[in-house]
Amino acid sequence: MDPTAAMPVFPVVETRFGRMFTLQGDAVISRSLRVYGEFAGDEVDSILSFVRPGDHVLDLGANIGFHTLALARTVGPSGQVTSVEPQRFCFQLLCANVTANQLTTVNCIRAAVGDAPGLCGVPRLDPTGRHNAGATRVSLDPATDPETDTVPLITVDSLAPERCDLIKVDTEGFEDRVVAGARHTLKTLRPVLYIEVHDREKLRRLHVLLKPLGYGLILHHTRFFRPANARGEPANIFAPDAGGSALIALPPGRSLPSSLPGELRPLA
Question: Which of 16, 86, 172, 186 is buried deepest, with most CB atoms within 10 A?
Answer without folding.
Answer: 86
